[in-house]
Write a structure and sequence with these properties.
Blueprint (H helix, E strand, L loop, with lengths): L1 H21 L25 H31 L4 H12 L8 H31 L4 H13 L1 H12 L1
């Protein structure tokens, strides 16, 4: 169960990170769906204090991220698109295939993106503040999540802290 929670947080955080990197185009994609994404070397020698901070921060950040994702999904749907179609349009734009998007869908996409950008900015500010209160930067938090996903030993250390 703890592993499921951490994995959900990992996926949510990676999706959130992807939103920040790609300007919300394709925000609902799973992190593993990035074909060019290479697994990078990550730091794994985190102190017990850093792991404690991470666990405490995770419990506070997850509801913020989940609420932001729900709001963004609602926005996309309010604009008349499914999340899947929103992602398809984002991909088409990135590939320079705008001609294959109807004018109506283009307008809905642009309206949704503008609103989603506002939600993301609010969520990012709240997350940064929450992490700062826990003694972590967003970058440090993401670094631990990446290491958790890649390093079984670190995963075990984090899981043990979450079980307490």
């Amino acid at each position: 169960m703890v592993k499921d929670i951490v994995e959900k947080v990992f996926r949510a955080t990676m999706a959130f990170s992807l939103m920040m990197l790609v300007g919300f185009n394709g925000f609902a994609q799973e992190p593993g769906m990035q074909p060019d994404q290479e697994q990078q070397e990550v730091r794994t020698d985190f102190s017990e204090e850093e792991i404690e901070q991470f666990v405490e921060a995770t419990e506070k950040v997850m509801p913020i991220e989940m609420a932001a994702q729900e709001k963004m999904t609602e926005i996309v749907e309010e604009e008349g698109l499914t999340v899947e179609r929103y992602n398809e349009i984002a991909t088409m734009q990135q590939l320079g295939m705008e001609g294959q998007i109807s004018e109506e869908e283009e307008e809905a996409f642009e309206a949704a993106t503008a609103r989603v950008t506002e939600i993301q900015a609010e969520a990012e500010a709240e997350i940064r503040e929450t992490l700062n209160d826990e003694g972590l930067s967003l970058e440090e938090f993401q670094e631990i999540i990446s290491a958790y996903h890649q390093d079984p030993e670190l995963r075990q250390r984090v899981d043990e802290k979450m079980d307490m």
